[in-house]
Amino acid sequence: MEWKTKIGLSTAKETLVRGYDLVDLIGRLTFTEAIYLVLRGELPGAKEVEMLNALFVASIEHGIFPPSTTVARIVASCGADFNDSLAAGVLAISTHHGGAVQQSAMMLQEQLSLSAEEIVKTARTEKRKLSGYGHKIYTTDPRTIKLFSIAERLGFGGIYVKKSLDIEKELEKQIGKKLCLNIDGAIATIISELGFSWKLSPSFFILPRIVGISAHIYEELSQANTYRRLDETGVIYEGEVKRKLP
Q1: Please, which residues have CB within 8 angstroms of residue 198's CB and are 6 or more apart in sequence?
Q2: How many C-beta atoms surround the C-beta of residue 188 within 10 A?
Q3: Superfamily name and number for 99-198
Q4: Which residues touch 193 (CB under 8 Å, ≥6 apart)?
Q5: pTM summary value
Q6: What are 109-127's pLDDT values in tens digits?
Q7: Which residues in the chain are classed under CATH 1.10.230.10?
Q8: Using CA atoms, how far apart are residues 163 and 112, in angstroms rounded to an integer?
Q9: What is the pLDDT at residue 136?
Q10: What is the model's pLDDT at position 139?
């Protein structure tokens, strides 16, 4: 069976990354530049690098409470090694945690020709949540505001940014409540502006979050906790009252 790839080639003689010798890249490319090269196939410009740096920093850490971090620390506290704990945390990044990035990017890229009114109306008719909007803590996500200001300054405040903000306004108009464009929606918007396919979008949340999760795992292992479990006061039993076996 043959596997065809345009990404890289490694032989005893050399290792090529998108056609560039890996040895030549070492010490000359930043990590962000290398990420762009591997994902897009070409070297980025200074503006793309600055935008991606901001994007990665915005997602790098958000406390213990996000499921990916909580799960990783729980697994680490049970005696699992670092790799298993990290994998467990990454596996928690799914539909309801971080997964909105992909759904939002897909919506933006595939429904760009539709008006914000049409997009919101269709979602409401189908009783479908619009990914990338709403947050448990924020009514206005400060990370989105900052990222969009950087995007505007760098020249990436284009059609996708406008569409995302129009949808936010239309949502409030149609449902009577503000659901802010959150960090997932902001990431989806900006990577669309940068020309990345929505199919690649999960990586832009996972890559930086791995760093934050790693720090939490190290902290958990350093504290030498036996294992984490829910406090009894945090569990509500809704089953049958105690009864005798007949």
Answers
A1: 102, 105, 106, 108, 109, 110, 188, 192
A2: 31
A3: Cytochrome P450-Terp, domain 2 (1.10.230.10)
A4: 151, 156, 157, 158, 160, 161
A5: 0.90
A6: 999 999 999 999 999 999 9
A7: 99-198
A8: 7
A9: 77
A10: 82
